[in-house]
């Protein structure tokens, strides 16, 4: 069973419940530093889904920090505050997908399956 780590202080529980219905295991955390510690302790994580607006760290900063230790771990970014600038930064870090909320459940399922099956990345910004 694939393990998904969700970092989202507001809507993470909703996304986690949906993913569980789709047959995935998962953990939801509300802070980036807790998520990094969770991963560094060797907890199994096959995919990370993170919000950009986090309590203790910018989501782009979190992805950059994560990439230093696990460059190939697939990451999906979700946000209510999307911008071209944050999209380009996320793409430069190799995220699988950048989604604006609200995310439809079938779209989330499709993207998570794609990320776990093929591990694609967005085109990297120059």
Give a quick rundown of the structure.
This protein is an alpha/beta fold and 126 residues long. The chain has helices spanning 12-21, 32-40, 59-69, 84-92, 105-118; strands at residues 3-7, 25-29, 47-51, 75-79, 97-100.
Written account of the structure:
The chain has 126 residues and is an alpha/beta fold. The chain has a single domain (3-118), classed as Rossmann fold. It contains five helices and five strands. Strands 2-1-3-4-5 form a five-stranded parallel beta sheet, sandwiched between helices. Helix 2 (32-40) packs parallel to helix 3. The chain is globular and about 30 Å long.
Structural class of the helices, strands and pairings? alpha/beta
The span between the termini is 36 Å
Question: SSE order in H/E notation?
Answer: EHEHEHEHEH
Overall number of structural domains: 1
What is the CATH superfamily classification? Answer: Response regulator
Q: Total number of β-strand segments? A: 5
Shape call: globular
Question: What is the top-level CATH class?
Answer: Alpha Beta
- What spatial order of strands do you see in the largest sheet? 2-1-3-4-5
Helical amount: 40-55%
CATH architecture: 3-Layer(aba) Sandwich
Q: List the uncertain runs.
A: 122-126
Rg, rounded, reads 13 Å
Mean pLDDT score: 90
Properties at a glance:
126 residues, alpha/beta, Rossmann fold, 5-stranded parallel β-sheet, disordered C terminus
SSE diagram, text form:
Elements: E1 3-7, H1 12-21, E2 25-29, H2 32-40, E3 47-51, H3 59-69, E4 75-79, H4 84-92, E5 97-100, H5 105-118
Parallel strand pairs: 1-2, 1-3, 3-4, 4-5
């Amino acid at each position: 069973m694939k393990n998904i780590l969700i970092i989202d202080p507001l809507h993470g529980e909703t996304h986690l419940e949906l993913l569980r219905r789709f047959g995935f295991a998962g953990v939801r955390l509300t802070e980036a530093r807790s998520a990094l510690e969770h991963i560094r302790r060797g907890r199994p994580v096959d995919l990370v889904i993170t919000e950009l607006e986090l309590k203790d760290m910018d989501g782009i900063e979190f992805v950059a920090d994560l990439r230093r230790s696990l460059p190939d771990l697939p990451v999906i970014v979700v946000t209510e505050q999307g911008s071209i600038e944050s999209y380009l930064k996320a793409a430069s870090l190799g995220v699988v997908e950048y989604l604006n909320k609200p995310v439809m459940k079938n779209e989330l399922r499709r993207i998570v399956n794609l990320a776990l099956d093929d591990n694609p990345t967005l085109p990297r910004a120059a």
